[in-house]
């Protein structure tokens, strides 16, 4: 149960040439560990998450999820792999306005063909796990920003993923609510043994990470949790 990115290079079209967004990035996140990814705007953080989520195929390098290589899989098989093993939390919760918190989660199980009664039980368990047991009946406009983000995180857990990929989950929250969401992510990573990658701008979150990777111009520089800014330029990581 892990996610392994090895020698990932990703380029985008840029006029007559190509822009290198990821340059030989290697990253190994074992189960039960939280890796934070930081770096300036444009350094490749979102691209890294998109490759890890198998939403973008890199030019070079391999992505292995729980030991399974993704190269050569059909779009259908990739979609299946994503649905079964990867939980993705985007920056904006993107909740459906007309559904209650519990129903936002049940939609995921419905897409997976599971029975409504069982999915309701699981949705309520997960809302409880993220501290929203008493908010299951509320619609998004009746929840605070922090509560909406918790629903977003619970929804990503609905299919019991082994890999959690989280993009800037606290950007719309004040410091206190942001810190609570990071605590939640740390706890879920350890309790549910997910391999978690957290992209964040906020360096105060780094203390919660088991490892930090600093992105610079598409390259990954590693440093241990709690250290100051990456000093060396050596490519990283384990
Ligand atoms: N679809 C795209 N087409 C062309 N270039 C892109 C595309 N997406 C990203 N880029 C470029 O790739 C580089 C890395 O972008 P990326 O979004 O991964 O960085 P980031 O670190 O997530 O930035 P931010 O913190 O601002 O979200 C940037 O130079 C960006 O302009």
Automatic annotation (TrEMBL):
- Ranges for domain ABC transporter come to 3-238
InterPro entries to which the protein is assigned, alphabetical: AAA+_ATPase (IPR003593), ABC_transporter-like_ATP-bd (IPR003439), ABC_transporter-like_CS (IPR017871), ABC_transpr_LolD-like (IPR015854), MacB-like_ATP-bd (IPR017911), P-loop_NTPase (IPR027417)
Q: From what superkingdom does this record's organism come?
A: Bacteria
For this protein, the record's CDD domains field holds: ABC_MJ0796_LolCDE_FtsE (cd03255)
One GO CC annotation:
plasma membrane
Q: What GO molecular-function term can you cite, just one?
A: transmembrane transporter activity
Q: Which keywords has UniProt assigned to this entry?
A: ATP-binding, Nucleotide-binding, Transport
**Pfam families in the cross-refs:** ABC_tran
Q: Does the keyword Thylakoid apply?
A: no
From the record, what ranges are coiled-coil? Answer: none
* Protein name per its UniProtKB record: Putative ABC transport system ATP-binding protein
- The species is Streptomyces indicus
């Amino acid at each position: 149960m892990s996610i392994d990115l090895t020698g990932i290079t990703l380029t985008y079209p840029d006029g007559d040439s190509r822009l290198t967004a990821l340059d030989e990035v290697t990253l190994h996140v074992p189960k039960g560990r939280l890796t934070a990814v930081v770096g300036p705007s444009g350094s490749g953080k979102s691209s890294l998450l998109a490759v890890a989520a198998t939403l973008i195929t890199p030019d070079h390098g391999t992505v292995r999820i729980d030991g399974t290589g993704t190269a050569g899989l059909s779009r259908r098989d990739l979609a299946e792999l994503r649905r079964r093993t990867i939980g993705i939390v985007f920056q904006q919760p993107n909740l459906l306005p007309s559904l209650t918190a519990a129903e936002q989660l049940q939609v995921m199980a419905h897409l997976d063909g599971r029975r409504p009664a069982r999915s309701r039980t699981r949705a309520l368990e997960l809302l409880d796990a993220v501290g929203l047991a008493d908010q299951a009946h509320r619609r998004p406009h009746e929840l605070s920003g922090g509560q909406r983000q918790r629903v977003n995180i619970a929804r990503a857990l609905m299919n019991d993923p082994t890999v959690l990929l989280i993009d800037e989950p606290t950007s719309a929250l004040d410091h206190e609510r942001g810190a609570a969401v990071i605590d939640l992510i740390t706890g879920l990573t350890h309790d549910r043994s997910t391999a978690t990658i957290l992209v964040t701008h906020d360096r105060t979150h780094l203390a919660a990470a088991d490892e930090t990777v600093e992105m610079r111009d598409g390259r990954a520089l590693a440093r241990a949790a709690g250290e100051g800014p990456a000093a060396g330029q050596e490519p990283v990581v384990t």
